[in-house]
């Protein structure tokens, strides 16, 4: 039981660390998220049940909490800047699959297909809480 707790603790530390550090060479935040966008990020899930489960398991930790140095779900301006910097959704797909700066490869979703990654990116990138 102690080994399981230690392993779980180490896994959580790695996940939190992999959320990121201040933007080193990445797209800068265009504007700070509004209180409504922060609220949206904290509580929103994709409407599709399967995507919702994947998001909750793999994306939420970094993308639904302000201050994790990952683009916040629903902060459209931040995502638009990243889309432009990475040359569109395919560039963000590559970042998700292969890692980019502090984002781990596969975004911790080792069973996500390309179509699921794209759907998750599109969900997170839409402007919410405005």
Topology:
Layout: H1 2-18, H2 35-43, H3 49-63, H4 76-85, H5 89-98, H6 114-125
Question: What labels would you give this structure?
Answer:
single chain, 130 residues, mainly alpha, 6 helices, 56% helix
Short overview:
With 130 residues, the chain is mainly α. It has 6 helices and no strands.
Assembly type of the chains comes to single chain
- Strand percentage lies at under 5%
Helix vs. strand class: mainly alpha
The count of β-strands is 0
Main sheet properties: none
Residue share in helix? 55-70%
Shape: globular
Averaged pLDDT: 82
Order of helices and strands: HHHHHH
Note the total helix count: 6
Describe this structure in words.
The chain is mostly helical and 130 residues long. It is 56% helix and 0% strand. The protein has helices at 2-18, 35-43, 49-63, 76-85, 89-98, 114-125. α3 crosses α6 (114-125) and α5 (89-98) packs across α6. It starts with a helix and ends in a 5-residue tail after the last helix.
